[in-house]
Q: What sequence folds into this?
């Protein structure tokens, strides 16, 4: 078995400002080095390949989340009490409390409304000549999610920024994370106020939580963290997928034509977008007991970095992984994580992204690039920051 | 080979039904219908069935020997 000094080492910082903007060449080098690679800058064992990422996600007893999934101890402390940051029974109880509102089953009642809103968003975009695809992509999550979670009208203008910051601080404590701390705290403070003053919208998930706390099913003190749990990850991530879809179809007109010809490809196209430009780069897990991965010994207390975005480009798993092709079976992509901690909002994310693609396919003939896209800087979220495109009406 | 389904864990994402429509289906209430629950998967469906097991986002399906 390989011990620490025999494990391949990758010295460049995969969280440097440049690497954040263009991470894929780093991931390719990591995959080439082996299934387990030591990152001395971050003191973690990186898992750049598909098989090991999936195995770790499925073994949540050995690779635990309760000591945090961030790359720094400060955030790992601050995120105690969230679903993301818990294991076993605690996690199951927390997840069940809100996730039952997010299953495809529970969301069916919303489908018509979401489809109608998507249609309106595309119609509005078509009235203008050139649009910023990122603004188009933000519109649907911003109109669906805050109502569902029950966030008051007040404070919504900060949500995208606060949500992005909540992710940023889950990276290593680099300049990027440090800059994000005030906005991350802004979200926490506001969530506490919302819970304390009961400003949640009636009938929403937040309302459910407060009522459950009134009934003694959980402590009132647990409510703010749980609200953040479901609000913060539901905006930037879906925005990322929709914006990447616009970008990919603008730059792959043949793929757009395939989608126009057969809208039945839309569900798989969403999987392929999430595979190709995974909205989440990576989260970590703490190793709970001495174990091994692919012949490498990992001692208890070490941290493993599950690189979803790299697993989704692993040539051992995918044919021609750097080609965007909506015809490939992309259902096994790890962009939503997998298993116990798999994204609780993936049903909603799929619903929104599919609704946008359906609205686009019905109304748009072509999507054309109208200037160079810019990627946003965030330790965790990989998404476009600006995407000038032209939508040519059908 | 049999496949067990954990109905409590299932959230109705429907990826299994996309991978193996002859084995899994979501009914009108988006509840999982497992056509081979407790019985052997037909040989010609093995590949699709395995794809369904590994695609389940919440790991609610398990391959049994």
A:
């Amino acid at each position: 078995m390989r011990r620490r000094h025999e494990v391949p080492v990758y010295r460049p910082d995969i969280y440097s400002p440049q690497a954040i903007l263009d991470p894929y060449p780093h991931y390719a080098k990591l995959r080439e080095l082996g299934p387990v690679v030591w990152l001395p800058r971050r003191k973690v064992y990186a898992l750049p390949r598909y098989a090991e990422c999936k195995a770790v996600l499925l073994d949540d007893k050995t690779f635990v989340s309760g000591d945090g999934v961030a790359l720094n101890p400060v955030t790992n402390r601050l995120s105690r009490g969230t679903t993301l940051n818990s294991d076993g029974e605690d996690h199951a109880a927390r997840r069940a409390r809100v996730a039952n509102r997010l299953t495809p089953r529970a969301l069916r009642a919303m489908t018509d409304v979401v489809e109608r809103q998507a249609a309106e968003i595309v119609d509005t975009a078509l009235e203008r000549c050139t649009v910023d695809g990122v603004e188009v992509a933000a519109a649907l999550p911003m109109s669906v999610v805050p109502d569902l979670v029950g966030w008051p009208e007040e404070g919504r203008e900060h949500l995208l920024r606060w949500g992005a910051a909540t992710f940023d601080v889950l990276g290593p404590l680099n300049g990027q994370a440090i800059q994000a701390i005030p906005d991350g705290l802004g979200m926490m403070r506001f969530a506490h106020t919302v819970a304390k003053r009961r400003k949640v919208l009636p009938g929403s998930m937040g309302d459910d939580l407060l009522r459950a706390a009134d009934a003694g099913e959980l402590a009132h003190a647990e409510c703010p963290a749980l609200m953040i749990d479901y609000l913060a990850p539901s905006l930037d991530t879906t925005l990322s997928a929709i914006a990447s879809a616009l970008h990919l179809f603008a730059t792959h007109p043949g793929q757009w034509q395939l989608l126009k010809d057969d809208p039945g490809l839309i569900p798989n196209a969403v999987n392929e977008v999430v595979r190709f430009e995974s909205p989440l780069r990576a989260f970590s897990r703490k190793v709970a007991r001495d174990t091994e991965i692919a012949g490498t010994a990992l001692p208890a207390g070490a941290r493993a970095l599950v690189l979803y975005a790299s697993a989704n480009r692993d040539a051992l798993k995918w044919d021609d992984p750097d080609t965007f092709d909506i015809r490939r079976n992309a259902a096994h992509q790890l962009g939503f994580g997998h298993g116990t901690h798999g994204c609780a909002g993936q049903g909603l994310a799929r619903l929104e992204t599919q609704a946008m693609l359906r609205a686009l396919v019905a109304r748009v003939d072509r999507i054309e690039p109208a200037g160079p896209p810019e990627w946003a800087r965030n330790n965790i979220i990989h998404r476009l920051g600006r995407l000038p495109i032209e939508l040519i009406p059908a | 080979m049999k496949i067990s389904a954990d109905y409590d864990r299932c959230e109705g994402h429907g990826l299994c039904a996309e991978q193996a429509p002859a084995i899994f289906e979501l009914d009108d209430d988006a509840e999982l219908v497992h056509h081979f629950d407790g019985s052997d998967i037909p040989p010609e469906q093995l590949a699709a069935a395995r794809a369904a097991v590994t695609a389940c986002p919440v790991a609610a399906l398990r391959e049994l020997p």
User: Anything to note?
Assistant: The mean pLDDT of chain B is 94. The radius of gyration of chain B is 10 Å.
